Amino acid sequence: MSDQTQSAVAVRGLRARLGAEATLGPLDLDLGTGEHVLLVGPSGCGKSSLLRVLAGLLGPSDGQVSLFGRCVSRGPQTQVRPQDRGIGFLFQGGALWPHMNAAAHLDFVLRCADVPPAEWAARRAELFAQVDLQGFEDRRPGGLSGGEAQRLALARALAPRPRLLLLDEPLGPLDAERRMGLLELFNSLRERLDLTILHVTHDPAEAAALASRTLYMQQDGTLDLERQA
Amino acid sequence: MSRSLLTLSLTLLALAGLAPVAIMALGVVQDPGVLKGLLDERTLSLLGRTLLLGGGAAGLSLIFGAPFGYLTARTDLPGAAWLRSLGLVPLIMPPLLLAVSWTVLLPQLRGASMTTLLMGLSTFPIVALFTAKAARRMDRRREEAALLSGGLPAVLRMEFRLLLPAALSGACFAFLFAASDFALPDFVSSVGPKFNVYADEVFANWRVEEDDSRAVATALPLVLLILSALLPALALRRRGALATLDSDFIAPRTLGLGKWRWGLAALAWGLVTLGALIPLGRMLFEAGGGPTGWSLGKFQAAFAKALDLCRDNLLASLGYSILAATLALPLALVLGHAIARWRHGWLLELLCVLPLAVPAILFGIGNITLWNHTWTYGFYGSGGMVVLLYVGRFLAFPTLISSGAVASLDPQLEQAAELAGAGPIRRLAKIVAPGLLPSLVGGWILMFVLAMRELDAAILVPAANDTVMFRMFNAVHFGRDDFVAALALLILFVTIVPGLLWRLFGGKELEVLP
């Protein structure tokens, strides 16, 4: 458990079916507000699935999930819809919409969040500045480099002003220099926007310097409590 | 997925596609006596002939279509782009028009051999399209690894196993088209030795003996026969797609054929000549006077006559086909999405393809049984009936195209929109549909082509008697002349126009495969 007082994420007895044989959990998890926690483990152990359960994209079969003190799912029952959980999700590979340019990506999210159209331009400019992507508004994903695409995906995740940012292998396709740049960006955003970050990676060395803790997931989908660092 | 949207789509599927099938099944259940003598000697003989026709056509389509598809998609074959376009003509052309041309050119060849050959020519583009799609999805690195280990033969050996499911899937669909066709065997048998197939018997039971239940019962073995081809086609379709999809896909290089290049080109052009150029040439020849002496004046007069006499029929067919394709498009998107994303989507897929397992003749009878009542007579006699008939009959094709495209769309794209707060309808309209544009347009065009060339069910349903294909069907049975040839060319031209426009101005490669 972290030294932060307010709980950002509280998971109790969580289980989820991942396929015919694989399961996630049972597991308990606590993240304090403002933490940057790394989640590492072997391929296929369920790291990404845990993020999806927290986001509400995958239904648990058992257990309770609370975010910032609010119960969002109890057993298989969803209490709070994914879009109402205050979560930003950086998908593996970006998951950018290939038919939209960078500005349209953000406009889409701002429209969904019921932000008045008159405010879109200012919010777009603010988001592009936050991820250092000014001047790329008209570019489509196909015209962006790997690092730029990840920054756009990050801007999209930040657009609804989330409190919890879930990162699913965000540095995978990038070279060492861009990895470091993006990690520093995560860190500065966490401090500036008061974000809590849960960061899935298969490489424990990747962000260890910036993370407050590292959690280890085992092949059977449970957390290795003895290896927490 | 929006529940209300899905419920609406399922209701329309049930109304247009499943209710005509269900009402016929109900008739047999209520009168099981009609099943007696179902497997008598005559029925078994017809079943054997239909199996022969379907199997023969599927075999020919595989032999012609698989190499044609691969060569035109992946190699430096001279004129490959032209071959790809012209190779679609036999599929777009109604089989009856193919028969009209070839029975004149080869009058001594009739019966089983002619019917099978024509069905093989008509359906080989299906196998070619399936093969070409799989061939284009070969990752360059896979090929290069094979190339390093043993040159072009090694590449072909490695790819054979990946291409085979796709080609076989196409052959199963070819079987489906051939086994359920009524008009082509009927026309080919109109002179010379008879080659009655199962669809003939179903038609005779209904039209001559006026016995609905008997017609339905007679068709049961044929339905089972077509299902036995359809189910493997669906399974193979999945395998053919999954075998070649990678997230970091790199498009393959064009393969050089070396010394085989011109020989193989001659074979490919020969096939296109048989399936497209000769029938088109024959029609152009006949429209201008044919054996009595060709002239431009006669040619123009034949077209003027065809337009004058059949303008209303052409417009009616055009209107029905455009409406059916446009109505089917949103249904296909919603149903295709559910098939691809639901855990038990295969069940919905099965429901969607069920109308295809029923011969068109029987599907027409089902619609008549369902809608020919005093309280629905206004609708039964209207163009709405024809549109519903086409939607019910062919909805499976755009739905399967759409489901295949959704399956290859990264689900995270939709999840990102869901997290942003986009509802199911907005996600479908703003995220899914734009990503599927070539598939949706392809589905629309395929639906339009199939509706334009539909004849078997339209023969039975009175409201469809004003379609241009029905007019054509009547005309060819009263002798061929310049009018028939000109009308055939007009039908072909109108059918090709949407695909041609997309080819010229669309920019992207269309996806027209189920």
Please work out how many helical segments of chain A DSSP would assign: 5
In whole angstroms, the N-to-C terminal distance of chain B is: 22 Å
Shape of chain B: globular
Quaternary structure annotation = heterodimer
Strand line-up of the largest beta sheet of chain A: 2-1-4-5-6
Beta-strand residue percentage of chain B? under 5%
The H-and-E topology of chain A, N to C, reads as EEEHEEEEHHHEHEE
What sort of overall outline of chain A do the alpha carbons produce when their principal axes are compared?
globular
Radius of gyration of chain B: 23 Å
Tally of strands of chain B = 0
Q: Indicate the proportion of strand residues of chain A.
A: 25-35%
Helix content of chain A: 25-40%
Total beta-strand segments of chain A = 10
* Span between termini of chain A: 10 Å
Largest sheet of chain A: 5 strands, antiparallel
**Structural class per helix/strand content of chain A?**
alpha/beta
Task: Count helical runs of chain B.
Answer: 23
| Major β-sheet profile of chain B | none
| Low-confidence spans of chain B | 242-246
